[in-house]
Fold this protein.
Amino acid sequence: MTEIVQVRELSKSFQITKRRPGFVGSLTNLVAPQRQTVHAVERINFTLNEGDLVGYLGPNGAGKSTTIKMLTGLLVPTSGEILVDGFIPWKDRSRYVARIGAVFGQRTTLWWDLPVIESFELLQPMYRVPAGPFRRSLDEFVAMLDMESFLNTPVRALSLGQRMRADLCAALLHEPRLVFLDEPTIGLDVVAKERIRQFIQHINRERGVTILLTTHDLQDVERLCERVMILDHGRVLYDGTLSLLNERFESDWFLVVTFGETYEKVDLPGLLSPQREDHRAIYRFDHRKFASAELIQQLLPRFRINDIEVRRPALEETIRHIYEERLLLPAD
Amino acid sequence: MQSALWNARMYLRLLSVQIRSQMVYRFSFWMDLFSTAGNAVAFFAVALVIQRFGGIGGWSLGEIAFLYGMIEASFGVMDMIFSGFDPDDFAPNIRQGSFDQMLLRPVGITWQVLGSKFLLRRFGRIIEGLAVFAYALTLIDVHWSAAKILYLPVVFISQIIVMGALFIAGSTITFWTVQRIEAVNILTYGGTDLMTYPMQIYPAWMQRFFTFIIPFIFLNFYPALYFLDKPDPLGFPVFAPFLAPLVAAVFFWVALLFWRFGINHYQSAGS
C-alpha cells in the first residue's frame, strides 16, 4: 500500500484578540489589545494510504476544519509537515490543487448564475482534462447522481440536495486521487443522504479514490468508513478501525424480550433486573462479558417468548461516551 | 508553473461567464447604465456655476471639463476591470469563503479575482466621462501634436492602473480587518473627485500630500497642463507632466507585492 498523505507533528495556532466588556473595556482594547493564542491543532500525526476512506470526527472546534484547510493548502501550518503525493500543499498551490478534490458542504464551488452543465464545462479547461475522459466521467456521474433533470438549471435555483450532488460531481471531474469531503450530507434528507453515501462508496471502491470525510452524521461513518480518527481539542484521540473502537468503548447493549404471557420473575444471573413494561423486559448487558446468544439460550427453556431483539447503541452514543467519560487521552 | 498566457485565457473564460450571468439581469443592467450615465447631468450643473464665474483658478469651463471627463472615464474603466478587487465586494468574499473556493482552483489567484466580477454597468460612468470629455473638446481648441496624441492613452492607462492598485491594496487590507477600511475608499473615490479640479485651488498642505505621499497631482493635473499648453502655476520641473506612467508602475508594483504578502499571511475565515 502506498502512502498518499503523510502528516507529521502538525500544529496550527491562531492569535485572537480577546475583547474586554463595557465602554472602558472597549477603549482599553483599542490601546492595548489582549491577545490570546488558540491551539486549533496540536501535533497531530497520521497517514492515509491509497484507497482509504477515513472518517475524521470530532465536536465543533476540535480542529477538523483547520486540518482540512491545511491539507488543501488554504492555511499554512504553524509547525509540522504535510506531504501529499509529493506536494507540500501550501507551496506551489495551483499545481497542487489540480490534483485534489474538495467539497465544503456549506459552500458551493459552482458559478451561481450559470446552468450546472456550464459550470462543469468550465472546469474542463481549468483542470486541463482531455475532452474524452472528461465526457466519460461526466456521463457516469450524471447518471449515478441522477442529475439529468437539473443540468440546465442555474445553480442559484437548485435545492440543497441537488447543489450538493453537483458540487460532488464538480470536485471529481478532473479525476483526483484524493478528495476531502467536509460535511457532504449536512442539511440533507434521508433519501438525499443515502444517494450521496452510495456515490462516495462507489468512487472509493470502483475508482480507488482516497477520501477523508468529516461529518457530524455518524451514520455516514458507520455506512462508509472502516477507519476513523477522533479529534478533540486539536489532538488525535483515536486512530483505528471502527470495529475496534466499538469493541473497546461501546456502552451496554440491550436485549429486548417480549414474553408470551406474564411472568413474576424474569431475572437473569449476573445481570441487573430488567426494565419491564407489560409483556416486555429490557435487559442491559455488557457485550464484552456476555454474548447475546448465551443470554437467549438461558431464556428460551424458561419462558414462552414471542420476540427477541438485540439493540446496540448508535455510534453517536459511543462517541459521546468517549468524550464525556474522557475514556481516551492524547498519546502523551 | 502555469504560463501567464494560459492564466490569461482562463481569465477570459471567467470573464465571459461574468458577462453572460449579467445578461440574465438585463433590465437592472440598463437601469444602472442609465442612472450612472445620468451623472453627466451633475457635471452640467457644476458647469453652469463655473460659467457664471468665468472659470476656477484661471481654468476655463472647457479646461475643467477636460480634467473631469478624463478622470471620470478612466475611473469608469478601472471600476469595470477591477470590479473583483473593489474592497466593498472583496471583503464579503473573505467572510463568506468564496476566496477559499478560488484558492482551491488551479488558476492564478490574481487572475481569478479579476475574473470574479466585471461590472458592465460601469459603462454608464465611462459614457458620462467621455461625453464630458467630448464636450470639453468642443469648448477649447487643443493644439494636438503627434506626441500629445500618443501620450493621451498613456495617461489614461496610467490613471486606470493607479486606481486599480488602490483597489488591490484596499482589498489586501481586508485579509486582516475582514471589514473594508473606509480610509481606502476615501483615497479612491475622494481622490477621483479631487482630480476633477485644478490642483492649485487646494490648500498647500493638500497639494503637498497629493505630491509626495499619494502623487495624484501627476496623474491628471500635470498631464492636462501639457495637453492644454498651460503654464505651471506651482513651479515643478519640466518633466512633471510625464511622470504619470512612472507613478503607475510604482503603485502597481507595490500593490502587487502587498497583495502577495497578504495572500501568504491569509487566515481563512471561520469553519
